[in-house]
Design goal:
alpha/beta; Rossmann fold; 24 strands; 14% strand
Length: 776
């Protein structure tokens, strides 16, 4: 261990040149620090590259700036924050210790990565190699980096100090050397494994003639060497190998022209991409784009996770094959990502830089705004800062998210297991601090209650009351959760109450109602079609076919209005649900009432052959239906004018959930609608019962009697059930009443007629009707 503690920090006013070595000076150092008992260092690549502002040859004195932050790489950065936050919440992992972090953006630059590592090792303040100025928190290891080039340089330094390093993206096989890199680990496979798999893939498809595009750097050289070795073993030949140097390349240069000509002239239809994907490789691909649409690209997971390549060359890469890492199980982090907005994290410079680059939003620093506006050649303006980082399409690509989470998870759990192992081996008695207290410590979720007596040190621990929590040990009082939250099972944290409503997608009861409503609506439509096709037959004409058609349409729409009752209530759906079913049911009952009155009047008060009998059969029935329906419409208009229904949240009926429901507004209006429907149904039932034995065609009065009996029975039973339920079950009761009563009317009135129309056509004649009347 070469690190030693020296007088640093505030005690050093002017560090000596030998102690202080600032390798890279940047305009903005993207540094993220959170204190804790245990510190995890992190070096992530978020910005794509760095550029210098100053003398080209004087690197130490030149100012460097990080450019082009990439949203999916920022996702990896946030994943480490999420993992540390989740493990801090878990009392079983490293109990009585808190995890902190010290993180930097390497900007995909080796020198910046080295500078960041030395800064983390030195602690806050000046970079002092070989000394630790950290006053609190013990540094246990490092996460990162993503690229092999920066990771190798980091690993060389950390190997000296024996610090554990877990990379989430470096694939170079150089790091397999346990002698040089004894503390290096990673959550991805090495290039040796990747290109072994890739060569097997080529052999499987019989592709023996391929081209290779590679970066001309350490990563590209290593990968092409491994690739050619594996290809040779599989009998696959390389048609050409183009290496792209990491320097400015113009289309006028001979090397660039030769590369384009090589690709154009080659008969190889398969091209392998390897090495480091850079802007120079992008330039070449862009120049030869028109020649590559019939080519098939093959590449490994490192290039497959490159968001820029996948976004800007999507059309050209269609049909390509990529070797990707298998997915590791990780928690859902969407809600955590959603919280990252500039308005919520004004100090997050990386987030601000992403907003500036992709949304042209100005930041808080005017000088930085002027600088970046000139560099990116964009005009900046003030933004609300409410856009979520998850709304960026590229951010939604998970990429190496699971690898980052597993890297943090593995490092922390390894430390946890080490502490458990040390604790089990040490003698239980000079290793533990003696404990002398009257009562045990009260855990989170409980509070202290003093015992009767004179000693304040003696107390009992009782669980917090309903709706209260305590999130610290030995709490004197419990805290009340807000109205939309409820304590978790341990009562040490408030969690959001679940919303309770009858859903048509995630609730089995809602699915059943939606299914039955659709089926009954379809059946009603089929009956309507049968009546339309047989509208000139005796059975359809006998009882005012216009009323029959209107009744069928209103019943069909009544079945469909059930969908207003499903799903999360909103103001518009609350308004429509009661009004729609009230008016539609009233139209249906008005038609039934009109049919009943016609039967009653025709056989009780009007002599056969009288002029009034013809008038009642043709006009009076329509007038009755219209007047009865219009009265209900007036009631609904008055209801909506005085106090219409609206969405309401019931937070008091249940402790652990919020009922999302419809407040009916005016209770008088709601029961007036129901009462009026009940009045019409009762009148229709009484009249139909009085004339049920008259010799009407096809026993119309008897059918109406049964249908109104079903209707009145259902709604009479619904009222007490409606008043005694809450939440989604209250809605379910009303839906059941709608479906049952509508089905009763449909079945009692129309099923017997459909039976005669479809299966007893010999009875569907005027002669048969007259004979049955005479017989009666």
């Amino acid at each position: 261990m070469l690190m030693c503690v020296a007088p640093c920090g505030s005690e050093i006013q002017r560090p000596s040149p030998a102690c202080h070595l600032d390798l890279v000076r940047t305009i903005e150092d993207y540094e993220y620090v959170q204190d804790g008992d245990i510190i995890i260092g992190g070096v992530f690549t978020v910005n794509h590259f760095m550029t210098g502002l100053g003398p080209k040859k004087d690197y130490v004195n030149s100012m460097m700036v990080c450019l082009r932050p990439i949203p999916p790489y920022y996702r990896y950065f946030l994943t480490m924050l999420f993992a540390i936050s989740e493990m801090n919440k878990d009392p079983t992992i490293l109990p009585n210790m808190t995890l902190g972090f010290h993180m930097y953006d390497s900007c995909n630059d080796n020198r910046k990565a080295v500078k960041s590592i030395l800064q983390i090792l030195s602690g806050p303040g000046q970079t002092v190699p070989n000394y630790s100025c950290r006053k609190s928190g013990k540094l246990i290891g490092f996460i990162g980096d993503q690229n092999s080039e920066t990771t190798v340089n980091i690993a060389q330094i950390l190997a000296l100090y024996r610090y554990t390093q877990v990379s989430y993206g470096a694939t170079t096989s150089v790091l397999n050397d346990r002698n040089m890199y004894p503390t290096f680990l990673r959550t991805v496979q090495s290039n040796r494994t990747i290109y072994f798999i890739l060569s097997n893939l080529l052999q499987f498809f019989g592709w023996t003639w391929v081209g290779i595009l590679s970066s001309d750097d350490d990563s590209g050289n290593e990968e092409t060497q491994l690739l050619t070795q594996n290809l040779t073993m599989k009998g696959i030949c390389v048609a050409y190998m183009i290496k792209i140097k990491p320097g400015v390349m113009s289309i006028t240069e001979n090397t660039f022209k030769n590369s384009i000509e090589t690709i154009r002239m080659s008969s190889a239809q398969v091209i392998i991409l390897c090495g480091t994907f850079s802007s120079f490789m992008a330039d070449l691909l862009k120049e030869v784009r028109h020649m590559l649409y019939d080519k098939t690209f093959i590449f490994g997971p490192k290039i497959a996770s490159n968001a820029f390549l996948m976004e800007h060359f999507r059309e050209m890469l269609t049909g390509s094959l990529a070797v990707e890492f298998y997915n590791l199980p990780v928690p859902d982090m969407k809600s955590f990502y959603d919280s990252f907005q500039v308005v919520n994290h004004p100090q997050d410079m990386l987030l601000e830089h992403i907003w500036l680059l992709y949304l042209h939003c100005s930041g808080t620093n005017e000088s930085s705004n002027r600088f970046y506006s000139k560099v990116y050649k964009v005009s900046l303006f003030n933004c609300s800062g409410t856009k979520r980082v998850t709304e960026f399409i590229s951010f939604q690509n998970p990429g190496l998210t699971d690898r980052v989470y597993k890297a943090v998870y593995s490092l922390v759990h390894a430390l946890h297991n080490m502490y458990l192992s040390i604790g089990s081996q040490a003698p239980e008695k000079i290793a533990q601090i003696p404990k002398s207290q009257c009562s045990e410590n009260c855990l989170p979720g409980t509070r202290k209650v003093p015992r009767s007596g004179i000693h304040a040190c003696c107390y009992d621990c009782v669980r917090c009351s309903e709706g209260e929590i305590s999130n610290v040990s030995d709490s004197e009082n419990c805290q009340q959760c807000s109205y939309n939250e409820w304590p978790n099972e341990k009562k040490d944290q408030c969690v959001q109450k679940r919303l309770d409503f009858l859903s048509y997608s995630n609730d089995h009861l809602g699915l059943v109602f939606a299914l039955f409503s659709s089926i009954l609506c379809a059946i009603t439509g089929l009956i309507l079609l049968v009546f339309i096709l047989h509208q000139d037959t005796a059975i359809v004409k006998a009882n005012n076919r216009n009323l029959s058609f209107t009744l069928l349409v209103s019943i069909m729409l009544s079945f469909l209005c059930v969908f207003f009752f499903l799903g999360r209530p909103a103001d518009i759906s609350c308004l429509l649900r009661q009004i729609s079913f009230g008016i539609l049911f009233t139209i249906a009952i008005s038609c039934v009432l009109a049919k009943t009155i016609i039967v009653c009047v025709a056989f009780k008060t009007i002599k056969p052959g009288n002029l009034w009998q013809h008038l009642f059969r043709t006009k009076f029935s329509n007038v009755i239906a219209i007047i009865c329906s219009f009265i209900q419409i007036i009631i609904c208009v008055i209801w909506l004018s005085v106090s219409p229904p609206f969405q309401d949240l019931d937070t008091s009926s249940y402790q652990d959930k919020i009922i999302v429901q419809c407040n009916e507004g005016s209770v008088i209006g709601f029961y007036s609608v129901l009462g009026y429907m009940g009045f019409l149904a009762a009148v229709s039932f009484v009249l139909a019962f009085m004339v049920r034995t008259l010799p009407d065609s096809f026993n119309e009065a008897k059918y109406i009697t049964f249908s109104m009996l079903v209707f009145c029975s259902v709604w009479t039973a619904m009222i007490p059930a409606y008043l005694s339920t809450r939440g989604k079950y209250l809605v379910a009761v009303e839906i059941f009443a709608i479906l049952s009563s509508s089905s009763g009317v449909l079945g009692c009135i129309f099923f017997p007629k459909c039976y005669i129309i479809l299966w007893r056509p010999e009875l569907n004649t005027k002669t048969s009707i007259m004979e049955r009347r005479i017989f009666k």
